Amino acid sequence: MEIVHIAAECYPVAKVGGLGDVVGALPKYQNNAGHQVRVVIPHYDTEFINKNEFDTVYSGFVKLGNFNFPFNIQKEKIDILGFELYLVHIPELFDRNEVYGYEDDIERFLSFQMATLDWLNSRSEVPDTIHCHDHHTGLIPFMMKYAYKFEKLRSTPTVITIHNAIYQGQFGFDKLYYLPEFDLSKVTILEWDNKINSLATAIKCATVVSTVSPSFLNEINNFGYGLESLFNQVRHKSRGILNGIDTEVWNPAKDKMLFANYSSKTFENGKQANKVKLCSQFDLDPTKPLFSFIGRLLEEKGADLLPHAAALALSENYKEINILILGSGNTGIENQLSHLVASFKGNYNVFIGYNEALAHQIYAGSDFLLMPSRVEPCGLNQMYAFRYGTIPIVRRTGGLKDTVIDIGDDGNGICHDQPSIEDVCYSIQRGVSLYKDKKSLKNIRKIGMNIDYSWESVCQEYINLYNLKTN
Ligand code: GLC
């Protein structure tokens, strides 16, 4: 079937978080399974885009109220990623280094959605499914159904996959005139809490709604960031599908970013070799267990707990553990984490920023990965950790609940219930004990390394979703 994915991120073209990983991987596996897959994202000013070659396949203007932005659609020449990649180039709005965080994000992503539809509507063939990801693409199902301009796409099925329900792309009705002309009797569909809400609109209009884990789907019926009643209403057309991981990119046996490669047979030596290098780079002690955190430094990830939890754990286990943090986000959290370095020299360090290669090296060189998330729609880091023989320490929520089982229940990781400093510290303590029990440590690592989280097994679930008849 012909599938078009539309999103704000796609690894390695542009990535901020897990959304990028998913949009960079699922399409590749769908393509390998024999489908015709296209991915459409904005053209940002990123290294990948500047390094590769593109052909212009379509040009037009996107009208946003009184503004007319010229745009073109560029196709990457050789399908280097394993699927057809299309970039929507709107120079005035997207020739910037960052993916998000600008004052005009509403205008940017609305224009992106309209330009994408303009192009798709102009093609002679109509896709079998349009798969939208998160609120940045949330108005697409509505515009396909009700905007006069995109009539050709009216009956094409759509999917909205929710990777994050906190951000909903809300804006005031004063910007309603940005939208292309549509059937005004449908205007209430756009509304949630007196605002235009892109995510809510997608949930109402898409043929199918999916979340990135089954547990997250259950949770949002009760804690749905203001959308609970809506999630309950659309239960009949909602499915929770656990993400996979790209096992080609994430393979410790072949990963070129690592200091040493290893398999599930050679992981003891392999991980130690990576740990020694990593520890020398960050002035840590390779003979002691290494607990790491990788990700965005946001409250939703529980990152605000890290400064206190790290300080407490390091004081309680003076010189007996290492903690290493990689991430960026909230500047308050960044500063607190950086200040700790002076107090715990030799056993604690932090790298503020985004660094893909370092992330791989940390998965390989660490013993435990901390994920004290308040919210985790799926979480990919625990799966990367498993694959690299690193034991996840997670708060039981969303996708973490679906993937990590506590060692007390013969599982593969360490779990706690509260996103609290006490729970994180207690779990680190359990990690210290496990680290001393070399036999159990080895077994648990091996169990994790042998779990199959590849997209190959998940791919068909999405095809079934596209074929779902919801009426
Ligand atoms: C978002 C979620 C994360 C999920 C990822 C990919 O980043 O926070 O839990 O794994 O999207 O779906």
Number of domains: 2
CATH fold call of the largest domain: Rossmann fold
Strand content: 15-25%
CATH C-level name of the largest domain? Alpha Beta
Summing up helix and strand content along with how strands pair, one would put the structural category as alpha/beta
Distance between the termini: 21 Å
Give the biggest sheet: 9 strands, mixed
Rg for CA atoms? 23 Å
Descriptive notes:
- The protein has helices spanning 18-32, 47-51, 91-94, 105-122, 140-146, 198-205, 214-220, 228-233, 267-281, 306-316, 331-343, 356-365, 381-387, 398-403, 421-436, 438-449, 455-466; strands at 2-6, 36-42, 54-64, 67-76, 84-89, 129-133, 158-162, 170-171, 191-192, 195-197, 208-211, 238-240, 290-297, 322-329, 348-352, 368-371, 391-395, 414-416.
- With 471 residues, it is α/β, with parallel strands linked by helices.
- The protein has 2 domains: 2-244 and 456-466, 3-Layer(aba) Sandwich (Rossmann fold); 267-449, Glycogen Phosphorylase B (Rossmann fold), CATH 3.40.50.2000.
- It is globular.
- 51% of the residues are buried.
